[in-house]
């Protein structure tokens, strides 16, 4: 729910979307609907881990191997999870990968972004996360700040991404 309250900077009440306030029709999240918009997320690069973490936090003998996981949480038809490729041995990874998400109810969709450091020999390490309401995203290039597992902002860790909406035909 923390992602939904980012719409008002975490200060409390968030008005329900109009689709939920229609008195004439009960909203059914499982109903089949046409795609309204396609959210295209171009992940350019990430930076700041070297500043916020020690040199051996992720790997003892080499720079980290980062990968981005991006997903949509919302009505069942909109839910999906996609991944960038892993950039090996780089504190400032450059992905330049575009991921597309068709949305049937964009008013209820949340964009979840998580960075992991892949360990090919064991469990993966957490590199940061954020959750943003799709209705609050603005088109263009953005520096998205990431948070720790408790939801606190890292001082320096950011992803440079480009958000673009395409109306469904």
UniProtKB/TrEMBL annotation:
Chief location category: membrane
The EC number(s) this enzyme carries: 3.1.4.11
Gene Ontology terms for molecular function: phosphatidylinositol-4,5-bisphosphate phospholipase C activity
Enzymatic reactions: a 1,2-diacyl-sn-glycero-3-phospho-(1D-myo-inositol-4,5-bisphosphate) + H2O = 1D-myo-inositol 1,4,5-trisphosphate + a 1,2-diacyl-sn-glycerol + H(+)
SUPFAM superfamilies: C2 domain (Calcium/lipid-binding domain, CaLB) (SSF49562), PLC-like phosphodiesterases (SSF51695)
Superkingdom, taxonomy of origin: Eukaryota
Keywords (A to Z) from UniProt: Cell membrane, Hydrolase, Lipid degradation, Lipid metabolism, Membrane, Transducer
Protein location: Cell membrane
GO cellular component: plasma membrane
Signal peptide: none
Domain PI-PLC Y-box: 2-20
GO biological process: lipid catabolic process; phosphatidylinositol-mediated signaling; release of sequestered calcium ion into cytosol; response to stress
InterPro entries: C2_dom, C2_domain_sf, PI-PLC_fam, PLC-like_Pdiesterase_TIM-brl, PLipase_C_Pinositol-sp_Y
Topological relation to the membrane, as annotated: Peripheral membrane protein
Chain ranges of the C2 domain: 15-148
Needed cofactors: Ca(2+)
Name of the protein in its database record: phosphoinositide phospholipase C
